[in-house]
Amino acid sequence: MNIIVTSIFVQDQDKALKFYTETLGFVKKHDVPVGEYRWIALVSRDDQDGTELLLEPNDHPAAKEYQKKIFAEGIPATMFGVADVREEYKRLIKYGVKFTIEPTEMGEVTLAVFDDTCGNFIQIVQK
């Protein structure tokens, strides 16, 4: 069994698409109209046949409540692996990304957490 798609709730699909592609560097794989929203799936530039990240609209009340509560608690909605957290931190700071946790060593990993501007905290991790 493999993970083929995972999703993250976003407040605005267009804003999220711009942030996740232009700032984070993901590649748009699918952008299909589905009613008033779209099926927007992104992939890693380095693994375009790998796991897809779905930018899921948080239109459902349960999704809004979940996103709001974990954000209020400072809990990252998901985690992305990077080769070098400190270098990625420097790169993202140049784009104006706001970090809530700067690169920090925790045992065998180095991590940092930033605000994706779409209602989520995202953790980046270097193993």
Automatic annotation (TrEMBL):
Under the heading Gene3D superfamilies, the entry gives: 2,3-Dihydroxybiphenyl 1,2-Dioxygenase, domain 1
Pfam families xref list: Glyoxalase (PF00903)
Domain VOC stretches: 1-127
UniProt protein name: Catechol 2,3-dioxygenase
Signal peptide (residue range): none
Q: Which residues form a coiled coil?
A: none
